[in-house]
Amino acid sequence: MSWLTRLAAQAAVPVYPCIGPGLLAAVEWLFLSPHLRRTATPRAAAILLVAGQIPPRAQAGLDRLHDQLPHPRASLTWDGAGDSTPDLRRLWRELLAGRGDQPDRLPDTPPNEWRGKGDHGQGGKGMMGGVPYGRPMAMTAKDLRDGLELDAYTARFGPFAPMLPPGLEVEITLQGDVITKLTPCAPPFDQGLDASTPSACAARLLHLLGLPLDARRVRTGKRPMGLARLRALPPGLGEVAPDNDARARLTAWLAGREDETHIPPLPDLLTGLEWHEAMLVLNSFTPDALRRACLEEAEA
């Protein structure tokens, strides 16, 4: 091992977590370790952490994420017991030493038939649309705000997108960054009450706001450094009742108060919002409340 490799081995391990039922809180505690770095995308990770038992309906998504990690890569299954940091650091050192690289799980073929279909063979209509190589392309459609024809892009997000609760799958149509249609496809996994405590929810939302230091302080029982920063949440965003918007829910969590807000159907709540607004609104509710809302909507 060269001196450069030994130096790299001291860095925080880049890990992308896929979180199964009941382990969201445990994974968030795990990533408080200074020896681990939770990446926002599998392309920036060296190790895939599979936390808990992944339900069969999410297995295909797990395999696709695994194959998106660049080589050399490894994966580790963790049941939430004990501290997995030593095992992750061992895998990291082995990868840097040129050992343990994992092959693809899926065949290197397009996930859907598209060649030769449509006017220009890309699987769409005219020169637009289609899903070449599994990547959906935009089509034009009327914008819901003014009726003008704009590019509309439809794709499915989840079940392991870092800004969504683990397990949640939604199909979203975007025009620009505005959500014009949203369809829930699968509810979040049951994470138990540990993931819905005020400190856990506040830390999650602060991290999404780009305030990781404040998120860490809140998760460890301290106050954030500057409450004025909470004004980054626009007033009225995600309002579901008088004086109950995303900022009010975060303020309540920071005061240690639990939130029992009833969530309206996700399409009604999120359609018309910009992408970043919708993600903030989603994370201003507890995972438990989001799961109940999705299950109620599926039964309606």
Give me a quick take on this structure.
The protein is α/β, with parallel strands linked by helices and about 300 residues long.
Specify the number of helices.
Answer: 10
Strand order of the largest sheet: 2-1-3-4
Q: Supply Rg.
A: 21 Å
Order of helix and strand elements from N to C terminus: HEHEEHEHEEEEHHHHHH
Strand portion, in percent? 15-25%
Mean pLDDT: 90
Largest sheet properties: 4 strands, parallel
Approximate helicity band: 25-40%
**Distance between termini?**
60 Å
Residue stretches low in confidence (pLDDT < 50, at least 5 long) are none
Number of strands: 8
Molecular shape: globular
Q: What labels describe this entry?
A:
alpha/beta, 16% strand, single chain, 10 helices, 4-stranded antiparallel β-sheet
